[in-house]
Structure formats: structure tokens, C-alpha cells
Write a structure and sequence with these properties.
Strand content: 5-15%
Number of helices: 11
Radius of gyration: 26 Å
Shape: elongated
Number of strands: 3
Structural class: mainly alpha
Oligomer: single chain
Largest sheet: 3 strands, mixed
Order of helices and strands: HEEHEHHHHHHHHH
């Protein structure tokens, strides 16, 4: 038997859940779907807590009326993009040389057990904004935005999201500018997928070997000169110590 005042209590439950999780008003909504037969009540929300987290809190508030609703959580493009980027850069399920990238199923599984992630820094925020903005609900008649985002990262890696697009704050450090331009082989795979840069000396020598570097590339190389000097000095000291030790041993 349905509980008394079901609609009123479900809406009150939704408001209480928003307050409990410190969410924006109307994040969790109690909605009646009159197009199903029979009609059905839902508690719907975007991002925010997991289904398990919200269920636990809702039971503490009004367990009886919770049984009258189906819980449904969806994800914004931004959170889906952020999860795609983070899982791509952190997964260890297969080594990078095998070209492993998560698909939309992996990402959904990752998100289901987590409260919606937040960007760790400005770079991650901009990357997620760029990836999320590429697709909307009408971007394809055959593929959902989550699948399209996973496909983009699989084809282009995450490094593509850092390249300058208009008058934005620079997201690449000098050594990363050079890595994006000159990395090859395994170094390119590590950069494309995990944003692992070349060491400063490798990056500088790559520019030095280029007969006609672009102005921004040359400027990035010049910015690395202090680090390159330091790396050469450290290498020289190490070599000198080896030679001295070998001479003393003989």
C-alpha cells in the first residue's frame, strides 16, 4: 500500500537530501513519470553522491517513502569528461605500450562507486571543460556523449586537450611544449596518455637538432637553459666521480 502524502514526502525528502549533501537546490528532484503504466516516482540527480550514499542518507530521513521511488543518477558532460581523463591517466590494467584506453563502460563503473570528482587543479579543470564542450546530447544520433568522449581520448590521448586554443592561459610548461612537439616512440605514448614529459636535456637537444624550430618552440628551449645547465653540471660531476673512483681503484 502506498504511503500517505507520497508526493509531498518525496519532495520533502529530495530537499532534505540536497541539504544533507550540501548540494545546490533542486539537484535531487522527486519527479513523477506519468508516461509509464502505471505511473512511477523517481528521485533523480546529476553528479553528486553515489546511489548507495544517497540511499543510506534517505533511509535515515524517511525510509518508508523512499521505498516508493526509483533512484536514478546521471552525469554531466563535465564530470564524465573529468572521469575519462583521470581514468585514462591513472589506470594500470594494461601497460601503455599496448595502447589501453578506457571505454565508456569502464568509466561508468569507475563513477558508480564514487561521489562526483572535482578537478584537482586548474589544468584538469580546463581539460575537462574542453573535452565536455566537444559533445552535447545532440552530438550524434548513434552515439552518446560519453562514448564520443572516450573515443576522442582513445584516438588523440589527453595531451591534445592541453594545446592552446585561442587567447587562453598557457597550459604547457616549456619542457611540455617541446615534448608535445618532439617526443617519439614510447616517450610519445607516455606523453599522449599520461602527460609524462621528456627530461629537459632531451627536450633541449631535440630543438637543437631542428634546423628551423617554430618561434614558440625556440622560446621554450631558451627557457629551459638553466635546467639544462644544471643537468649537464650534475652529469659532469657524476662522471668525474666515476673517473676518480676508477683511477683510485687502479
Amino acid at each position: 500500500m502506498a504511503v500517505a502524502d507520497r508526493a509531498k514526502r518525496l519532495r520533502a525528502l529530495a530537499r532534505a537530501l540536497n541539504e544533507h549533501f550540501e548540494l545546490a537546490p533542486d539537484t535531487v528532484l522527486a519527479e513523477f513519470d506519468e508516461y509509464t503504466r502505471p505511473g512511477k516516482w523517481y528521485l533523480r540527480w546529476t553528479d553528486g553522491p553515489t546511489v548507495a550514499q544517497l540511499t543510506k542518507a534517505a533511509k535515515d530521513i524517511d525510509a518508508d517513502v523512499l521505498a516508493e521511488a526509483t533512484l536514478f543518477r546521471k552525469y554531466s558532460n563535465f564530470v564524465w569528461a573529468l572521469a575519462t581523463i583521470r581514468l585514462t591517466m591513472s589506470t594500470e590494467e594494461l601497460p601503455p605500450e599496448q595502447g589501453y584506453y578506457p571505454n565508456s563502460w569502464h568509466i561508468r563503473e569507475w563513477l558508480q562507486g564514487r561521489k562526483a570528482p572535482r578537478p584537482r587543479n586548474k589544468r584538469e579543470q580546463v581539460m575537462a571543460e574542453r573535452l565536455g564542450a566537444m559533445y552535447d546530447d545532440d552530438s550524434s544520433a548513434f552515439h552518446s556523449p560519453d562514448t564520443l568522449m572516450a573515443d576522442f581520448v582513445r584516438e588523440n590521448g589527453v595531451a591534445a586537450l592541453l594545446r592552446d586554443k585561442g587567447p587562453r592561459e598557457a597550459l604547457l610548461s616549456p619542457v611540455e611544449v617541446l615534448t608535445d612537439r618532439y617526443a617519439t616512440g614510447e616517450a610519445l605514448k607516455a606523453w599522449t596518455r599520461r602527460l609524462v614529459p621528456l627530461n629537459p636535456l632531451e627536450a633541449f637537444l631535440a630543438v637543437f637538432a631542428d634546423q628551423d624550430p617554430e618561434p614558440n618552440v625556440a622560446a621554450a628551449a631558451l627557457a629551459l637553459v638553466p635546467e639544462v645547465h644544471q643537468a649537464v653540471d650534475e652529469a659532469a660531476r657524476g662522471l668525474d666521480a666515476r673517473v676518480t673512483a676508477e683511477a683510485q681503484a687502479s
